[in-house]
Amino acid sequence: MVQSALKYLVAFFMIISISSGSYAQAEKAESEIQSMMKRLDVVGLSVAVVKEGAIVYTHSFGLKDKESNTPLTDPTIFRIASISKSFSATSIMQLIEAGKLSLKDDFSKLAGFKVRNPKYPKRVITLKMVLSHTSSINDKEGYFNLDVINPDKNPNWTNCYNDYEPGKGYQYCNLNYNMIGTIIEKLSGTRFDQYVKQHILDPLALYGGYCVDSLDSSLFATLYEYNAASKSFTPSLAAYTPRREEIKNYVMGYSTPVFSPTGGMKISAGDLAKYMTMHMNQGSYNGIKIISKKSAKLMQTKVSDDEGYGLAIRTTDDLIPGKIMKGHTGSAYGLYSAMFFQPKEKFGIVVITNGCNPTYTRDINDVLRAATNILYNNFIN
């Protein structure tokens, strides 16, 4: 009886101790983040921390909308920009696993029109080159539709190619991933936004998507572009454009850039952290398999040593001192986002801001780096 009571008391005080420690960690982290936000003119910030494969902390700071003085909350969803590319690459890996295509496939045959660098007409541009930004394709003609690179549609299509041989150089390119979206449609027979919802979001029980009209617009964070001259913020009107007319006249396998496979995912920081954990766990989350371990490893393996880029997953040692992290950043319409994880140590951090003074250190936005390190030092280290 006495021993049972002692065990109960020990367990009780352990819980109190852990809770107090967690509270103290959170209080310290939040104080440091709020100081950083004042220093770097941050409108709002949503964060999530994963430790040992589980989400241990989520929080939102600042404003969701400045004009109405609405606070940012955890259910708020953001257009996360280029982190979206990893959803497109994940979808491609699913189709590869289903035997519908290969990383070695000629992208011309997949796209249905000639995708060839005119300076190297005999050099095949493969699916893997497009996924890894080693295709020699660029964004000089834009990337909001496929006409820009289609020789039958644009007389200046040759501008879409760099001088180097495909596979022999690296240049980050949004057009690559808007083309990837069309391949997903062609081989799955499902519209791009619906494919991602059915095969990634729904199985993981995540709320988000690429189609604006399929989401609750009251959850959207207003995105703010910073004017350095006036030190003021302007709300972006383009971030959540529904593109209803284009969708009404949609052509499967060609109109796909309407949904921006390269940057159009809308999701909360917390749900993005769950998706990130799936990649950290090599393709599975909470017993749900999205891709195989082989596919997850391929996505995380560097193709380009110059930038550490794999297949929509980048490797960097510039984010947290002494740590090699894998993930992706995003920036558009004033938003800056980061999703990075350490696969061996099983921790990861998501940071999203809907507006800030966009200063950079070593190619990573200072707000993203500062917030990531504050969270790492308080919850992981």
Automatic annotation (TrEMBL):
Annotated signal sequence is 1-24
Question: What name does the UniProt record give this protein?
Answer: CubicO group peptidase (Beta-lactamase class C family)
Q: Where is the Beta-lactamase-related domain?
A: 32-364
Q: Which Pfam families match?
A: Beta-lactamase (PF00144)
**Classification lineage:** Bacteria, Pseudomonadati, Bacteroidota, Sphingobacteriia, Sphingobacteriales
Write out the transmembrane intervals: none
Which keywords does this Swiss-Prot/TrEMBL entry list? Signal
